[in-house]
From TrEMBL:
This is Putative dehydrogenase. The lineage of its organism: Bacteria, Bacillati, Bacillota, Bacilli, Bacillales. SUPFAM superfamilies: NAD(P)-binding Rossmann-fold domains. Pfam families: adh_short. It comes from the Bacteria. It comes from Brevibacillus brevis (strain 47 / JCM 6285 / NBRC 100599).
Length: 291
């Protein structure tokens, strides 16, 4: 019996990166996983990437779960509403897990430029894609969980605190998702539903591999350009973190908290795809990043 056999999950923003890693790991654990996003075969989003939600769903099924791809633009309220109405009908009202991983902010982030010199439209669009979408998605997902008096919502973020992340608009987006989890946890506490935030460390996503001109087989070569790359982790690591949380009968004790892949690996003893256990928290402290 797989730990999440019979469970229903939605990974919002599951096209690539952390979302894909989470969806596939949930599939390995036996879950039915709805994968949403904007890029489908024959119709790509402005992210200009080749990965599609159909590919992710197929990987979910191949790993042992049931992957279902549904194109949803989470900035469009009616699309989100219709999607959860579909889930309610198809799953008889069951929804056990919502992972909010909607992002779309990479091409909108202008590193090394003060906020008043950045295009304001890019900064505002980032908030639209990375915060408002999470609010809309949770609004329509939560009633299914409240009705069954159980469920888990995981907000995917970057970082475990409110520290400045090197760009005003990026910081605002990532910190806001943490506060969404904290606030939802309080409202949902009487209803048996858990909400928390989760961050990866240095995520070795498809886009990051492309940026450094390496593949998953040759990724260590990227350390010649950035030594910190040696502490990177694959999307599988955060996927296994989500499975550990979703499988924990005492997960409600973590409601309102902001957690990390490395911290949860310490607690649950899961590894990354290659058997390693990257610990960005210890590494960052050793490097003096946050002093």
């Amino acid at each position: 019996m797989k730990p999440l056999q019979g469970k229903v999950a939605v990974v919002a923003g599951g096209t690539r990166g952390a979302g894909r890693g989470i969806a596939v790991s949930l599939g390995e654990a036996g879950a039915t996983v709805y994968v949403t996003g904007r890029t489908v075969r024959g119709q790509h989003s402005d992210m200009a990437r080749q990965e599609t939600i159909e590919e992710t769903a197929e990987l979910v099924t191949a790993s042992g779960g049931n992957g279902i791809a549904v194109r949803v633009d989470h900035t469009q309220e009616q699309e989100v509403k219709a999607f959860f109405e579909r889930v309610k009908v198809e799953q008889n009202g069951q929804l056990d897990l919502l992972v909010n991983d909607i992002w779309g902010g990479d091409p909108l982030t202008h590193w090394g430029t003060p906020f008043w010199e950045q295009p304001l439209a890019d900064g505002l669009l980032m908030q639209e894609r990375a915060i408002r979408t999470h609010m809309i998605t949770s609004h329509y997902a939560v009633p299914l969980m409240v009705a069954q008096k159980k469920g888990l919502i995981i907000e995917i973020t970057d970082g475990i605190d409110y520290r400045y992340r090197g760009n005003l608009y990026y910081s605002l987006a990532k910190i806001s998702t943490i506060h969404l989890a904290v606030s939802m946890a309080e409202d949902l506490r009487p209803h048996g539903v858990t909400a928390l935030a989760l961050t990866p460390g240095f995520l070795r996503s498809e886009a990051m591999l492309d940026q450094f001109g390496v593949t998953e087989e040759t990724w260590r070569e990227a350390s010649k350009q950035d030594k910190h790359f040696l502490m990177s982790e694959t999307p599988t690591y955060i996927g296994r973190a989500v499975v550990a949380l979703a499988s924990d009968p005492a997960v409600a004790e973590k409601t309102g908290k902001t957690l990390s892949t490395w911290g949860l690996s310490d607690e649950y003893s899961f590894t990354d795809r290659d058997g390693s256990r990257p610990h960005w928290g210890n590494y960052a402290e050793e490097q003096g990043f946050y002093r």
